[in-house]
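pls ignore typos typing on phone
adenosine monophosphate + seq
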Amino acid sequence: MHFTDLGLRAELLRAIADQGYDTPTPIQAQAIPVVLAGRDLMAAAQTGTGKTAGFTLPILQLLGSRPAVARGKPRVLILTPTRELAAQVEESVRTYGKHLPFKSAAIFGGVSMAPQLKALKNGVDILVATPGRLLDHLGQRNADLSAVEIFVLDEADRMLDMGFMPDIRKVINLIPKQKQCLLFSATFPEEIRALAKGLLRDPQTVEVARPNATAELVTQAVYHVDKARKRELLVKLIEDHSWHQVLVFTRTKHGANALSEKLDKAGISSAAIHGNKSQGARTRALADFKSLKLNVLVATDIAARGLDIDQLPHVVNYELPNVPEDYVHRIGRTGRAGSSGEAISLVCVDEHSLLRDIERLLKQNIEKRLMPGFEPDPSIRAEPIENGRGRQGKPGGQRSGNRGAQGPGKPARGSNGPATHRNAAAHHSGSRGR
Ligand code: AMP
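k done
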């Protein structure tokens, strides 16, 4: 299958060719014809599968094929859970729409409203937004959703995690009933299915690449190491292998800051990104990391959501995530779109049960490596994992604890229980600033 087989117009094919792509990814091959046919879509796909182009391309084609009803009002609304994802989706709209005349804007919190207001006043065809800031603009009558023809919910399960469901319902009430709806989610907990049922009309369901399939190009390995020696081991790995671009995950914002400071002291340039950082600081850190001015970016799960770094060679789980699916999201930052990558996890005795959950989800054992001189001390007993909840404040949302269903209609595979999910939500709360 080739992009030309999908019936996309020349302007889009040119933009795709400019990106160097010729073969649609599985989600693109399946979703594009459904969207072009005007059908509602429920897609089980996550970041790294090419889903963004999977909805952006056919949307651009549809907009080009019919006249606008009301000039200047958004014809497409795409909701995303995080600022980073909103910015990246809008960048994709620009990339694929560069030979077409449509205007787009990204609306998210943590930055001044004024430039967003200006963009809205100038007229926007495709609006990409996080729910909170969008509602702020709507409350001030800066935006009018009465002409929305296509509505996209991207990463719906994350929005649920972050407590956005009430906001999403408010937004849905402000857009026309007659519209095409596309819902993308990595997992389908009960609340998402209920939302889909009320929102989508006779949807076509597509499901691609179960999360573990994205890991195929990624070499994974675990180093068992004592908690107190993780930093030393990380520095050694970076120095021994001359790793120049490493995305490191910690479980808490505090942990991200502390590690980044210590890496800097060890002479390894790094920055931390998480929800407590200003948008400016996050954008700068990401740009410096992409341009290799920084060797290491230390991130919490939510800050790294949707980060799109071409050919990122190394991901390190400095701490394992509480939710096994987050491991898959994390390692999906590397080995993307055909390039190979390496994901290393530093696992201490406290984390053995998390590692077992992850291996169960992946249905494979991850290779164990030993670094001489860093063998774990067998006398150290496991302790409960510090999750930073006290520091994170109130969790951003409620969870049913029903995470883990791998696709529409499939049973949930709950693994860690609701407490873990609340913790995950606490991480997310920082990223939803209005
Ligand atoms: P996404 O899942 O939308 O975040 O996309 C993941 C990555 O795949 C991004 O870096 C895209 O630029 C890239 N990508 C999207 N479509 C294709 C394609 N057809 N071939 C190769 N890479 C792609």
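The radius of gyration is 21 Å. The first strand starts at residue 41 and ends at 44. more later
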